Give the backbone structure.
Amino acid sequence: MSRQSKHVQEYCLTVIIWTAATMVAIPFIWFMSDLLWNGWSQLSFTFVFAAPRNAGREGGIGPILISTMLIVGVCMGVAWPMGLGTALFLSEYTRQDHVLGRLIRGSLDVLAGVPSIVFGLFGNALFCQVLGFGFSILSGGLTLACMVLPLLIRTVEESFRVISREQRLSAAALGLSKPTTIRTILLPAAIPGLLVGGILGLGRAIAETAALIFTSGYVDRMPESLMDSGRSLAVHIYDLSMNVAGGNPHAYATALVLVSLLFIINFASSWIAARWTSCNQLPT
Amino acid sequence: MISSSSNISSRSKGDFLLSWSVRLLALTTGGLLLLVVAFLFHESWPALQHIGLSRFFSDPDWYPTDNSYRLTSMVWGTILATTGAVLLASPLGILSALFCHFYAPPLLGRWYRHMVELLAGIPSVVFGFWGLVVLVPMIGRWHPPGPSLLAGILILTFMIMPTIMLVAHTSIAHVPVAYIHSASALGFSRWSMMWHVILPTSKVGIFTGILLGMARALGETMAVLMVCGNVVQTPSHLFDPIRTLTANIALEMAYALGDHRAALFMSGLFLMGLVVLVVCMAEALRHRNIYVATK
């Protein structure tokens, strides 16, 4: 190949790669600025705290924020202890290559890939019908708990695994029992991982729509108990844009609230993760 | 794992309690997958019994109220939208990853990566909403009606590109520095280095990313539901409205009863099988990758 054509080739590739990068960046900037532009003008103190009126065209998202928090609260309240227990089992009570541990890990990997709408079907069948919770915040939260468990367990287990062997050996040499080792050595060292896992799970739960539309339902009133149906922010956006004519302005504002919440969550988790890696290095 | 089971103190009541409760929790979460599959089977059993598998593909059309249950056009909708999105998002994702590593100035590269990470975290319903109010009217002006296979493909591309890009980015970062140094020492041009050194070394990782993106596109519900028009038909060109399997479940689950409901669970089961197959392929590839790297 001549020197000339090599130069041409090199030049073309540079152009192609910069074009591809721009083609990704432009829609992103367009999307974000559109959301900010149209959402910001609708956003106000009353919008965040008032109740929706006229199917959401007027008023605010107060009860919807509360329902979202309750759904996510139920989800994390169930998923967090279960995830912690499973991660403890996987990292402290079985060998890495043990059959049971591998089976559990494999099943969680598959579960992580199951589409959210399938979790919705499952939640509808189990929680709403068989267990008789109906369309309720409880059903929605439990369905989401099943969905975020794989992600949570993987992060928490990883945070136990990176604790150095010396710390465990020292604990064993001091004759500490396993519960004491876990309580006083492993848990404190793994706290950042537990937080990051929890925050990632939270983010996934807040963003979810498909698993909620037929488990926690559509009702936009202020929930009185966990057995009431409640609408989450994501479901509110869906309902306003698809089923309510003239609902777009408020859908924009709700989308802005949701995306801002997720960005905060995202930053919090990467901040903790960054601090964690800088603190966790052993002095050399 | 450091076992302290030989400790005298480990025979305490607390240890016993903790070890069994942890075991119980682990078995519950491990059994969750079986529970999901069992419930889907249980709920779709009436459909298998009364309708039978073959009728899902041989009935005249999808009119569940008239006892006609053809899923073919929805299967086509899912396959076409996913294929289109993967075909568009893969080159974009791979090229962006290369851009971050070899073309962008370091600061821009870092910002670009953060941007893609943010993009990966945006909920599908927000993408769907944006598609509905911005993209669909634009396509409608160009070639009516607007809600179409094309809109679905574009939104899905936007959603799975981050997955593909981030996985490709990680696997390119894992190419040993010695390879890159040797390539420059041999006087490789940037193009030959990428084509002959970087891409062959990281191709397993890149392919894993594409499979994960594909799994996401197959299971995506809200975004396609909002931009695709949801007409039950096999599309003949890009501007035809389509309905995917996922959208069909989300739309009809609210009022479905009896065999209709069972048929929806049946399609959920089918969808889950498809996605699990893709995820397993990706997992198998990833393990092979680790094996090759440590050898």
In short: Confidence is low (pLDDT under 50) at residues 4-10, 290-295 of chain B.
